[in-house]
Amino acid sequence: MSATADVTKIDYYELLSVSRTASDGEIKTAYRKLAMQYHPDRNPNNPEAEEKFKACSEAYSVLSDPEKRAAYDRYGHAAFQGGAGGGNPFAGGGFPGGNVQDLGDIFGDLFGEMFNMGGSGAGGRKGSRTQRGRDIQYGLTLEFEEAVFGKEREITFRRMETCVECKGTGAARGKSPVTCTQCDGRGQIRMQQGFFSVARTCPVCHGTGTLIVDPCGVCRGETRVQREHTILVKVPAGVEQETRIRYQGEGEAGKFAGPAGDLYVVLNVKAHAFFERDGDDLHCVLPVSFPQAALGTELELQTLEGVELIKVPEGTQSGRVVRLKGKGVPHLNDRGKGDLMVEVRVATPTKLTKEQRELMRQLSESMMVENKPHSRGLFDKVKEIFS
């Protein structure tokens, strides 16, 4: 070997920006980053980037293989050049066997089916014509009561449907798509780059493997047409805001008779005038006067299911909650209901007549309270003054 030949190439470790003690995982991560940066598809018409990409791939092919890495650490680049001394098993062998497949594993999650290492393209898979249809999202607004008790609503929307004229082939009646001569029906064009081949989507058939020579007069070769579609949406009792109801296969039809996508009906529930929802429980506030709270009373409350009688016990304090069991929201897809929580609040009048003011003064004098601060634990004792 000549010393000149060994220094003309950049050190593989330096090329991947890793140390000589780097782990297999660190080498793999460094290579993936550089491969993404210099890949020819990301740098069209850039010979310098292509050369760096090839060099990085060569470096990884060596350093990712334990035997090759050991040989490189011992002999340097001479380990893979003809005429190397020391009985080097890799001399003159280029990069046989080894981790060619490992390169494909790395690029599998980066470029999908782009890389097919070690092959010339023969026997590659045929292009897939069928394509799954797009999912559709439809927003449906409901009244508060409709979400609580359930509702059936018809909705109409536009979607792509399989062309009836050509039955999804895209070709005119009596005609059929023909095999793409550019890729021989594979949907991919392969180009050799060094010791591996790069597969790119065929620019003529766009990966389908076929061409429509005589397009359908209705869909013009698109295999689908846009139409209005109506469906009955069954909203179950107890749904909440932004609940999604999925209707499988009710989305757009797939191209070339591919499977249809799904329809997702997203619910928007309007607010109620005074009921608020917390899970399956309902909450509301019921104002009462001071005499009603002090003496106790019975009041009618209009609930979602009709009028309910609310008993306000004598001496009720503001903020007390009265629970009406089973008067809340039905449990979604289950038996039972939540509860209705009624918070009683004592309403302080803001305007009084002369007569009311006098009565309130007399009441205040007969119920004198020593206005001194106290801990919260003494609150119940203070209430005894008014009992």
Characterize the structure shown.
The chain has 387 residues and is α+β, with helices and mostly antiparallel strands. It has 3 domains: 3-111, Orthogonal Bundle (Helix Hairpins), CATH 1.10.287; 136-269, Heat shock protein DnaJ, cysteine-rich domain (Chaperone, DNAj Protein, Chain A, Ribbon); 276-356, Sandwich (HSP40/DNAj peptide-binding domain). It has 10 helices and 15 strands. The chain has helices spanning 3-7, 12-16, 24-38, 47-63, 66-75, 100-111, 144-149, 290-295, 354-366, 379-383; strands spanning 136-142, 151-162, 178-179, 188-193, 196-201, 210-211, 224-235, 244-247, 263-269, 276-278, 281-288, 297-303, 306-312, 321-324, 340-346. The strands form 6 sheets. A 4-stranded mixed β-sheet has the order 10-11-15-14. It has a 3-stranded mixed β-sheet with strand order 1-9-8. α3 (24-38) packs antiparallel against α4. The model is unreliable at 1-7, 83-105 and 108-127 (pLDDT under 50).
